[in-house]
Specification:
153 residues; alpha+beta; 2 domains; 21% helix; 45% strand
Length: 153
Amino acid sequence: MSESRGMDIDRMLSIILIIAIILAIAMTVYVVVTPKQGEKFTEFYILGKGGMADDYPTDLSVGDEGEVIIGVVNHEYASITYLLEAKLNETVIGGEELCLEHSETWEQPFSFEATKKGEDQKVEFLLYRDQDHNESDETREPYRSLHLWVDIG
């Protein structure tokens, strides 16, 4: 009788071990097959004329044209519609609506004209997401913002 009981315990332990191995294999397959979703964010940047993060048009004369490259990269894991707005001293000088798929990059040159003499004039680049469009213009906060200080002589 004790021999039979020992075989029953061995059989039960073998069954539990087999079930544990099957569960471990199933969990491993699930982890490998299920894609990991990383952090959701949007890259928003400005580059100088040479396509580098330098050589920005910071010293201009009245009538001169400054040029930068504006870039947006969608890492939101969804299709997103963005509204891009450019301002010089709080005056809107340009804008564009763009729709980007996940991992899609949008990069375009942007030119602005120095119209008024003065130091420390602020060129702002504001990026709004489509979710922000439902708010009124007065209360809407940009999703991302960049600025550049320009001296106009």
